[in-house]
Amino acid sequence: MKTAMTPNSPLKPRTSSPRFRNCLLSLALATAFAPAFAQAAKPLTSADLAQMKTAGFDDQTIVKAIAANGVSLDTSVSGLLALKQSGLSEKVISAALAAAAPKPAPSAAGDAGVPDEVGLYTMANGALTPLPVEVVNFKTAGTVGMAFSYGLKKAKLQGTVPGEKSAAQLASPITFVLRCVDGTAPTEYQLIPLVPKKGAREFTESKIGVTGASGGVDNQALALNFQRIGHDTYKATATDLKPGEYGFLAPGGSTTGSSTGKLYSFGVGR
């Protein structure tokens, strides 16, 4: 027997149930915070890193933020100078460069191993792996000796890379693939040996005396025969590199009066 509804006993609609209200609340929260979640995954820019430094974040926190979000920044010499001038440490700049480097990716069929991004890569089994990008700091050493010898003893303009070893340790022979910046030639990327010394790797850029600079990285550069394989892209194989640390010095740096530069590093095992 059905019970008749009376005006004094109305049935409550289902939409007022606690479960329904919770569903509506969850949906509203998800909609409200969706833009915030999307923004959290946005790569950090140079301005973001500078702002974190100004706000007082320590290096470890900034490096973790870089690892969590990635970066989108200018890795040219002028871009590196801007990062340094904003007060960021070499540790943070190196972490940003590592995050900005293109990730290893197998070459697509028919592209002959041509990378999409500017940089230096090694090729093995048809796959391209980017070399680590590191900051070079240029400094002048021996100026006191030059002064007291009236210029007979020359000062040295040295390039220093933090750390005694590159993260990329390779075995000879090594095939390199170079994607140049538009307007540059492969000969502008100079392969030089680095000398491990007191927690760093060093090379002499040039010797400076009263008669001017002499020598230079050209005297240390190792010859590689790069062959063109695509637009701004070249390939070469090094078969006789001795065990040790090396780097490809990118165009710019001290030759343009800058105190910093960029180097693609690697080591050759024994």
Describe the protein.
- This protein has helices at 18-40, 46-54, 59-69, 77-85, 90-100, 143-148; strands spanning 105-106, 119-124, 127-130, 133-141, 155-162, 169-170, 174-179, 190-196, 200-209, 212-214, 227-230, 233-238, 244-249, 260-268.
- It is of the alpha+beta class.
- It folds into 2 domains: 25-100, no CATH class; 105-268, no CATH class.
- The strands form 2 sheets. It has a 6-stranded antiparallel beta sheet with strand order 1-3-2-7-12-11, with no helix packed on it. A 6-stranded antiparallel beta barrel has the order 4-5-9-8-13-14.
- Helix 3 (59-69) packs parallel to helix 5 (90-100).
- The longest helix is centred in the first third of the chain and has 23 residues, at 18-40.
- The radius of gyration is 28 Å and the shape is globular.
- Mean pLDDT is 76; it is low at 105-110, 142-155 and 207-216.
Quick structural gist:
The protein is α+β, with helices and mostly antiparallel strands. Helix content is 26%, strand content 30%.
Beta strands, count: 14
Total count of helical runs of at least 4 residues: 6
Portion in strands: 25-35%
Shape annotation: globular
Q: Please list the strands of the largest sheet in the order they lie side by side.
A: 1-3-2-7-12-11
Helix and strand element order = HHHHHEEEEHEEEEEEEEEE
Number of discrete domains: 2
Largest sheet: 6 strands, antiparallel
Structural class: alpha+beta
What is the CA–CA distance across the termini? 94 Å
What is the helical fraction, as a range of percent?
25-40%
Multimerization state: single chain
Radius of gyration: 28 Å
Average predicted local confidence, pLDDT: 76
Low-confidence stretches: 105-110, 142-155, 207-216
